[in-house]
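Figure 2 data, in text form.
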Amino acid sequence: LTALGWMPESGAVPCGPRAGAMVGELMHAEPEVVSPADTVVSAAVQMSVQKIGCLPVMDGERLVGIVTEMDLLKAYVAACRDGGIEPSLDVSVRQVMRQPVHSIADTTSLAEAAARSRRLHVRHLPVLRGGRLAGLVSDRDLRAAVGDGRPGDTPVAAVMATRLVTIGPDGRASQAAELMLRH
């Protein structure tokens, strides 16, 4: 767990009402699943509707794999590249991007960034310095900061990603997906 940023090196247990819970207490007893015969599209729809990032793949009662958001991106990029998707389905980034954009200042504390991320139900927050994009902080960055023992009042500038890869609103969704996979 230390390597994943969930626990500080000291082994201290993260705070919160469920921090000491066992995995069995937190897991979904009836998880959403797919079979190897299901289509990529049906898996994507199921993940989107359920707001989940992965699906166990079951062959009867046997777990045979897992399909993730990144696997679906790879399939989409490959289908666009190989002509397996109608060109009209490779929409512009403008058609799928989220608006309005919820951003934070580089001086925002880690605690406030985490609270805002939870409140807005977003996993990534663009970080602005002087009104210009300076970085990006993700839920993973915030968890790692907690795991590293950083105080909640630490500015996000200390943990944000600053080597950003961007795309314009007129780029194609397949180009955005390819950039996400590559970087």
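Caption note: The radius of gyration is 19 Å.
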